[in-house]
Structure formats: structure tokens, C-alpha cells
Design a protein that fits this description.
heterodimer, A: about 250 residues, mainly alpha, about 0% strand, globular, B: about 290 residues, Rossmann fold, 2 domains, 6-stranded mixed β-sheet, 12 strands
Chain lengths: ~250, ~290
């Protein structure tokens, strides 16, 4: 067991070093949510109601970009480059290897969230964490949900050149309809209906409760259920379609 | 234990849908032996090796690698095996020595990274990023990563494809030094000279079956092997006979020539080279399958 933890740490450390070795990608990955927050925050400056919507919205987007987008892209690239296949030929247990990749993504998500929450508090007067256990609950659920969906989605991306197009074709519409930049309640009902089926709006609801409203978790049971169901779907599809090798053309 | 073969394959079969990639292969590789699977592209060499490496399931037959069934992917087996895949990648931004130090941690008794760097000839490239290496240097890094765990058995799937002649010679020297260390090596290649230069025994594979097997030197003198006798007759014409009984034929030819008072100019008795055996065998199958 301690060997497994040691190996996981060993793999995680490598992933972190390699992440920082590509500074432009690292900057983009970590800085994008903060950039969005600052742009929209400046636009909404003075309208605290909007800012209170924006900060949990961008926090939710950070979770999705740090896990779904990053892992989806990562898996496609590593599979295509043959790194996954090479790792599979070593004694490193596959679960530990994938765990290292996931922890790396989680770390980036945490850094993004920290930026967003601190900036939201200092620049835009969003008070900060109202309900810490609820925040942790939603973050854990959100990360598990979008990480598994990212791995699952990587199975349908044909190659690394088309990965940004495929991933953004999901990511961008989802963040636009899920109330990242505006209160989802203000959206037309058909958009709202679509968004309600998808997980991001529920993550943002939960984060809003934890960060702004401080409302009881019992009132948000529906959000937890939807996120949980998507997590199960994501894990099932991630495991079922998993391939260590690129499809042969 | 050590008298058990390193690899034992019996009636191995693999189908992809309706396509039979491997059709009843059997062979045994002894400990410390260098065994070559030689054949054209698409012969089923890589499929066979990837079944032995645990990457693919098999459709039939039995396989034992160091006493384990690779399909179960036991970690104990992966600790004792080094794999050089035909095509594989490495993190673009990892450094050579960093990669070796990292991979060394996966094995119970790894070799010293610097020693392995020397063995594959990557001295001076320790701190180079993988993406800055040439194709040949990347291939040497592949080999280094396969050797870092000090494996008993090394799989080399077309290790020198795309190498320039000097790099091939260097790679051959590395394989020979592995052999000298007592490693068992399973090598696939479509280069005849490579099989001839490196392998203790060679199996010629075509369309998923073994057509001939033996030491490269002996492959010509098995049951189907024939000897070629050539000379110029009295009219100066080149005459060539192929026989599986050279003693008798030579006796007859020389007796007739002596009786006519002629000489057999430029007489040569040659065994077919591996290349001739290979071309003949692989061509025959193509002929039959048409």
C-alpha cells in the first residue's frame, strides 16, 4: 500500500514537472478562468447581483476546464503519442499511472479555483466561502464528474489535431448555456431545459450555495443527484471505452 | 527453473474479425537465446510479439513467458521483461536521464541510469529533452527504457527500422552486448542480414505461420534445403544444378566430365543463403495463396 502511494507521488511529481516545462500551455491552462473573471467582472462592476452570479459561474467553469478539457486533451495526446502504451508495458500499475494524471489535473483545478475565489473576494466583493463542507462536496463531485467525462469523451476524439475542435464543441456551448456568465434563470426556458439535463449548471448552483447564498444542502439535493448520475455515466463510459493505443488507421 | 524455456508458444492463433493474423504458431525460446522472427510486413510478427508482451489477447493456443501467462498481465512478469515497441512515444518534454531515473523507480532491482545511458550510446544527451532527439536517438532511448529494469527477457520489435547503416551497426553491438550479459532476446525484423547477424535461431514467418526455423547458418540444410552446384561446361555455358544429394551429383558430374576429358570450369558448390531460403519460401506461399 505504501508502495502504491509512493509510486503515485512519484508519477504525480513527474506530471507536475512536465506541466511547468511548457509555460505557455501552463499559463493558458491556469490563467484562462482568471482572465474571464477579470473581463466580465470589469463589465459588471458595481452590479453585485451579477458579480455574485459570475464568481461561482467561473469557479464551475474552472472545474470543467481543469478536468474535462485538460484530461480529454491529455488522454488523446498521450494515447496518440504512444505514451500510454509504453507505460502499460512497465510494472507501474495502470491505476496508479492514471491516478497520477488525474491528480495533476485536480491540482491545476485547485490552483484555478484559488485564483478565482481570491480574485472574486478581493476585486469583486464576493464575500467568500459561506459553507465550507458544501464547497468541498461540490468540488469533489464536480471534479469526479468532469474528469470521468473528459476521459470518456477522449475515446470519441479521432486524433490530437482535432481534439481542440471536439472538446470546445462541447465545452463552449455548455459554459454558455449553464449560467457561467449570467444568471441561468434569465435564459429562455428551452435553453434552461437543455442546461438542466447537463451537469455544469448543477455544479454552479451548488457552488453558488456554498460561496454566496449559504443555503442549506437539503435544498440542493437535486444538484447532487444530477452530478452523481453524470459521474456514474462518465466512469462507466471512461472504463468501458478505454484504450491504451490509438486506433489503427 | 532455469532449464525452462524463456518463451513457449504452442499453436498460437489470433483473429481480427474474419482476418486470421496468426495461424497456429509454435516456437520455443531458450534462456539466454537470441531468437529472431523474420518475415515481410504484415506477416503477423508484431501481433505475435504483442501477445507475448501482454498487449493483446489471443484467440487460441497457449503462451508462457518466463512461466507466466502474459494475457493475465502479472506485474511480476512486467518487472522482468523489457519492451521495445515498434512504434511508441515518450513525453516530449522529459529529459533523457530524468526518464530513466523515473522509470527505474518502477522496478525492484533497476540498473544504474548512467550505466544504461552508456550502454545505448546516449552519453552527452543526458539532459536533452526527448523532443530534441533525432529518430535514432529516440530509438536508443526506447532501448534504454526497456533495459532500465535489468530485464531477463527483452522484446525488440523491428529495433533498427529506419536506421542509417552506422546506427544499425551500433544497435547490433548493443544487442550483442545484451546477449553477452545472458539476456534472452526476442527480435522481429524484416531485414535478413539483421536476423543473420544477431539471432541464434530464426523463424521465417509469413501469413501468420512459421515456414522454416533454425540457426541462420543451418536454415539451408534442413529437409527442404538444397545445394547448388554450378560450373561452366566445355562450350563455356553456365550450368547450374540444384540438388538435395550433392555427393552423388558431384560424383556423377565429375565422372562424366573426366570420361569426356573435359574440365568443369569455375565449379562451385554453395548452400543457399538465408536470403535465398527466405525469398523462396515467402514467394512459394504467395504463389499458393493466389
Amino acid at each position: 500500500m505504501s508502495d502504491a502511494v509512493g509510486l503515485l507521488w512519484h508519477q504525480y511529481r513527474l506530471e507536475r514537472r512536465l506541466f511547468w516545462r511548457n509555460p505557455s500551455a501552463a499559463f493558458f491552462n491556469l490563467g484562462l478562468p482568471l482572465l474571464f473573471l477579470v473581463f466580465f467582472g470589469v463589465i459588471f462592476k458595481g452590479d453585485q447581483k451579477q458579480l455574485n452570479v459570475l464568481v461561482p459561474g467561473i469557479a464551475g467553469m474552472s472545474v470543467m476546464s481543469g478536468t474535462f478539457v485538460a484530461l480529454g486533451h491529455n488522454m488523446v495526446t498521450l494515447r496518440e503519442q504512444g505514451v500510454l502504451k509504453r507505460m502499460r508495458g512497465t510494472p507501474l500499475p495502470p491505476g496508479i499511472y492514471l491516478g497520477g494524471l488525474a491528480l495533476n489535473a485536480v491540482t491545476n483545478t485547485a490552483i484555478q479555483l484559488a485564483f478565482v475565489l481570491v480574485a472574486g473576494n478581493l476585486l469583486f466583493g464576493v464575500e467568500g466561502v459561506q459553507d465550507f463542507p458544501q464547497l468541498i462536496l461540490y468540488l469533489v463531485l464536480g471534479v469526479a464528474c468532469f474528469a470521468s467525462l473528459g476521459v470518456a469523451f477522449s475515446h470519441v476524439v479521432p486524433n490530437s489535431e482535432s481534439a481542440p475542435a471536439y472538446i470546445n464543441a462541447v465545452f463552449l456551448p455548455v459554459i454558455f448555456i449553464s449560467g457561467v456568465f449570467y444568471d441561468a434563470d434569465d435564459a429562455p426556458s428551452f435553453i434552461r431545459d437543455v442546461a438542466e439535463v447537463l451537469p455544469l449548471i448543477h455544479l454552479i448552483d451548488g457552488l453558488s450555495a456554498a460561496l454566496v447564498k449559504g443555503s442549506e444542502i437539503a435544498g440542493n439535493a437535486g444538484d447532487v443527484v444530477v452530478l452523481g448520475v453524470w459521474t456514474l455515466i462518465g466512469v462507466f463510459l471512461a472504463v468501458r471505452g478505454f484504450s491504451w493505443e490509438a486506433r489503427r488507421t | 527453473m532455469t532449464s525452462d524455456p524463456a518463451i513457449d508458444v504452442r499453436d498460437l492463433r489470433k483473429s481480427y474479425g474474419a482476418v486470421d493474423a496468426v495461424r497456429g504458431l509454435s516456437f520455443t525460446v531458450g534462456r539466454g537465446e537470441v531468437y529472431g522472427l523474420l518475415g515481410p510486413n504484415g506477416a503477423g510478427k508484431t501481433t505475435t510479439v504483442e501477445i507475448l508482451e501482454g498487449y493483446r489477447s489471443r484467440s487460441g493456443g497457449t503462451v508462457s513467458v518466463l512461466g507466466y501467462d502474459p494475457a493475465r498481465r502479472p506485474r511480476k512478469l512486467r518487472e522482468r521483461v523489457g519492451i521495445v515497441l515498434q512504434q511508441t512515444g515518450i513525453y516530449r518534454n522529459i529529459r533523457v536521464r530524468e526518464a530513466l531515473v523515473h522509470f527505474a523507480r518502477f522496478y525492484p532491482r533497476p540498473r544504474d541510469p548512467d550505466e544504461v545511458i552508456g550502454l545505448v550510446g546516449l552519453e552527452g544527451k543526458q539532459d536533452a529533452l526527448a523532443r530534441t532527439l533525432s529518430g535514432g536517438q529516440l530509438r536508443r532511448l526506447d532501448l534504454a527504457l526497456a533495459l532500465i529494469g535489468d530485464p531477463e527477457l527483452v522484446f525488440l520489435d523491428e529495433p533498427t527500422t529506419g536506421f542509417d547503416p552506422a546506427a544499425r551497426r551500433a544497435a547490433w553491438d548493443t544487442v550483442r552486448s545484451l546477449r553477452a550479459l545472458g539476456k534472452t532476446i526476442l527480435l522481429t525484423t524484416h531485414y535478413l542480414d539483421e536476423a543473420q547477424a544477431l539471432a541464434d535461431r530464426v523463424a521465417i514467418v509469413k501469413a501468420g505461420t512459421i515456414l522454416a526455423e533454425g540457426a541462420p547458418r543451418d536454415l539451408g540444410v534442413g529437409a527442404e534445403a538444397r545445394v547448388r552446384i554450378s560450373y561452366r561446361n566445355a562450350d563455356g555455358e553456365q550450368v547450374e544444378h540444384v540438388t538435395d544429394d550433392p555427393t552423388r551429383l558431384l560424383h556423377e558430374l565429375t565422372a562424366e566430365a573426366l570420361a569426356r576429358g573435359e574440365r568443369l570450369e569455375d565449379i562451385e558448390v554453395t548452400r543457399p543463403t538465408l536470403e535465398e531460403v527466405y525469398l523462396e519460401l515467402t514467394a512459394d506461399v504467395e504463389h499458393e495463396s493466389v
